[in-house]
Amino acid sequence: MVAIADLAVVTDPLAWVVILIFASSGVLSWLESPYERHAATVAWSVFAVFWVLMIPHYAIVQRSIIEGLLSAIAVPGSLYVGWIIWSGQRSFTVITKAVAIMGFIYLPFEAITFFRSGSIELVARNVEAILGFVGVDPTVVTGQDGLRSTFVFVAEDGHHLTTRVVLACTGIGSISIVSGLALAVDASPRRQALGIAIAIPIIYGLNVLRVAFIALAHGFQWFAGFREPIFLVFGIDDPYLVSYIVADRVISQSLSVVALILITLALLRLLPELSTVVEDVLFLLTGQEYDLERAD
Predict the structure, then answer these.
(1) In 10 A of CB 138, how many CB atoms?
(2) 76-102: string of b/e by CB count within 10 Å (b at 16+)?
(3) Which position among 37, 63, 116, 210 bears the catalytic label?
(4) Active site annotation includes 169
(5) Residue 162 pairs with which residues in a beta bridge?
(6) Which residue, 79, 63, 108, 87, is CA-closest to 242?
(7) 174 with 167: CB under 8 angstroms?
(8) Contacts of 223 by beta carbon, 8 Å cutoff, 6+ apart
(9) CB 3.0–4.6 Å: which of 2, 171, 244, 292 could bond 218 by disulfide?
(10) Low-confidence residues of the chain: pLDDT under 50
(11) Catalytic residue among 37, 63, 116, 169
(12) Is 116 a catalytic residue?
């Protein structure tokens, strides 16, 4: 049996396989091939397997209730989408294409050191500047990965409180989602580029503020009073981690989901073609057909 810590050996190559299958579905759609439905069904089915493997990583290793829950929901959700496509009820062509584009944007940052390291250190420098602007001057050190991306605060009792910037802190996940959706719809390249150009700075800026908030909350132990519920829910016993868990796993991740939804909905003003994606999501949730353009 593969240990949880070793799951990346499986999930990393599987992620590329999934994205390539999604991409093949997009190509077959462009060619108007009857095999598009088969490729899309396989893509969503394998996607479900990927999310099954990600559940223990998020829920146990990362101790992220929100990401663990979303991964668990993604398993039946992906299978349901695959079944709807196979049965011919709906094609989900735009979302299928969007997932492929998201993957091609995100995975290079995961796999290529230059992209991953550069994005992490850029965020770290920006966070350092924000902390300096508000009068906070933590020590910034180089971690075992060779990146200058770790903020060190010292508590009154001398305990060192460290917050390390990792790839998940760069905002590339949200950027790839919004960019994938914008590029997948049938809109003019100018409006697609404009939508992405507006969304990326907003996402990146909010993300830098998020990391700065987490570093401050952890460094100054803002939420130390929530020890008992955090110990119970997250299964930890280190009192110094409580503020970090509350700031990151509870507050920041919740607000990140809300912000991503609001940004996507705001893009509807510029890219009304995104209503197709909203209609697909509503169909999944209710089983009813919607025509949002006609409703407007």
Answers:
(1) 20
(2) ebbbebbebbeeeeebbbbbbbbbbbb
(3) 210
(4) yes
(5) 152
(6) 63
(7) no
(8) 217, 242, 243, 246, 247
(9) 244
(10) 1-5
(11) 169
(12) no
* 224-269: pLDDT as tens digits: 999 999 888 888 888 999 999 999 989 999 999 999 999 988 999 8
CA dist., res. 151 & res. 208, Å (int): 14
- Amino acid letter, residue 123: V
Positive or negative: CA dihedral 10, 13, 19, 21: negative
Q: Which residue has the tokens 């390291």?
A: 117
Which of 184, 176, 173 minimizes the C-alpha distance to 280? Answer: 184
Residue with tokens 């607000």: 255
**Residue 8's pLDDT is what?**
66
Retrieve residue 121's tokens. 């250190």
∠214-57-179 over CA atoms, to 5°? 65
Q: What SS3 class is residue 150?
A: strand
d(CA 29, CA 31): 5
Return the structure tokens found at 85.
Answer: 């496509």
Q: Is 248 exposed, middle or buried (0-12, 13-18, 19+ CB in 10 A)?
A: buried
Convert the pLDDT of each residue in 199-213 to its tens digit: 999 999 999 999 999
95 with 122: CB under 8 angstroms?
Answer: no
- Comparing CA positions, the residue from 158, 162, 169 lying closest to residue 125 is 169
Does residue 45 contact residue 78 with C-beta atoms inside 8 Å?
Answer: yes
Tokens read off for 278: 């909203």
User: Look-up: residue for tokens 């700031």?
Assistant: 247
